[in-house]
Amino acid sequence: MSMKSKKPILLVSGLGLLMVILLVVFSFYSDSKEAETKNYLGPAGIPVSREMRAELTAPPNVPGPTGRRKAKKLIVDMEVLEQEGVMSDGVKYIYWTFGGSVPGSFIRSKIGDEVEFHLKNHPDNKLPHNIDLHAVTGPGGGATSSFVAPGHETQFSFKVLNPGLYVYHCATAPVGMHIANGMYGLILVEPEEGLPEVDKEYYIMQGDFYTKGENGERGLQPFDMKKAVDEDADYVVFNGKVGSLTGDNAITANVGETVRLYVGNGGPNLVSSFHVIGEIFDRVRVEGGDFINNNVQTTLIPAGGAAIVEFKVDVPGTFILVDHSIFRAFNKGALGMLKVQGDENKKIYSGKQEEGVYQPEGSGIQEMPVDNDLVQVNKTATSLKEKMEFGKATYMRTCFACHQAEGQGIPNAFPPLAKSDYLNADLERAIDIVLHGKTGEITVNGKKYNSVMTKQDITDEEVANVLTYIYNSWGNSKKEVTQAMVTSRRNVH
Ligand SMILES: [Cu+2]
């Protein structure tokens, strides 16, 4: 009986004791947790030792690696310049730039760096600008602190907290227009241990441009707001212009080397399907972050985003960089070249082993569709010099993809126009080929070609100029072709 009455008392006091113990333990635990979060500052707590000026580079170059250096106060001195540049042969454009290039100067930093950013707006500029760096943790990515009028300078600081490859851009209204005129670039934040060493590093950034005239229309072309809003780009290019990475401007590597490309997309509108023809990316740091994907053919780079792609080059040759939204590459400019030199490796790539002709029944000369709105009435050339200039522009727009920049052609596929015996032997035949296309076997400089050249939809004046350009280039017979000569051949076939 007495036992029974004591039991509930014991139970209650036992439970009470347990509660007290739990409370004490919990308060200790929460105290230490609080202390932990107070002490844990993460990258924000990385101390900076000394200061240094950031090395800034224009594309396609990047500053040297940060290696094992400690976090520093990093001084970035950037000047905004509004300046005229060349979009394509004969086409000029007023670019707005960070540091005088499109994309703007490449900034290379290390996690924990305290960046002291000086933004200067050149007194000759017409507009205010600012900068929003995606690597900044803070309102507007710096934009709210960096608004600066022409002839003024502004300064703000930020600590880089997250490793990765980040876009920066102007964010002054109308934002789209400032970006469309070239105001974007990349800032790399290296992790503490730096990025793994590679042999070659390059800086490439895609952008879309909107001009009053259609693609290729000569002269100084103003920005077209309506086309920009409609996302109807006239030019989609790497590094601010057509041909920034082709011919003599191509990036280079040697067989056996590892190549790292820092690829950004400034937009303003289009997403890039970045691809290198004939290469596979061994590693892609997807969206410029920590996630690494291996063995990638094409990587998607959003507007206002970036990716780091890495690959080893195993065989020599010219590797074409494209936005695989392919009309942009062959018709709007999003085409670059990586030239690799070194010994062939027939185990990896054999080259052509057999050659034959495949002509399905009924195939003949095809015609490219014409959009009459796109046929431009351009200024007429008045001198041989102007004919050459206009002819070259047409060549780079129309013939280049097949016959190549120096008229050298592509073995077994497209005949050369440089020192072409076939071309030099018969002027009227050459005019006919451009006007009407060509199919069937021909022999050029001792080599047989049996393929199809489509009829080229260009005006008689353009045919005259482009042929004059070809005849007066690359060791050809210096004939001058007039519009009248072309018009008289127009209706022969
Ligand atoms: Cu701006």
Number of extended strands: 23
Bound molecules: copper (II) ion
Strand content: 25-35%
- The average pLDDT score comes to 89
| Unreliable segments of 5+ consecutive residues | 369-377
SS-derived structural category: alpha/beta
| Outline type | elongated
CA-to-CA gap between the ends? 125 Å
Largest sheet: 6 strands, mixed
Task: Report Rg.
Answer: 31 Å
Helix share bin: 10-25%
Structure annotation, total helices: 10
Your description of this structure?
The chain is of the alpha/beta class. Helix content is 23%, strand content 30%. It has ten helices and 23 strands. The protein has helices at 2-39, 143-146, 175-180, 225-230, 326-331, 384-403, 421-425, 427-436, 460-471, 483-490, and strands spanning 51-53, 73-88, 91-98, 107-110, 114-121, 132-133, 152-159, 164-169, 184-190, 200-209, 219-220, 235-238, 251-254, 258-267, 272-277, 281-285, 292-296, 298-301, 305-312, 317-323, 335-341, 438-444, 447-453. The strands form five sheets. Strands 1, 2, 3, 5, 7 and 11 form a six-stranded mixed beta sheet that branches. It has a six-stranded mixed beta sheet with strand order 12-10-14-19-16-17. Strands 13-21-20-15-18 form a five-stranded mixed beta sheet. A hairpin with a 6-residue loop joins β16 and β17. α8 crosses α9 (460-471), α8 crosses α10 and α9 (460-471) crosses α10. It is elongated. The N and C termini lie far apart (125 Å). The structure holds copper (II) ion. Copper (II) ion binds next to loops.
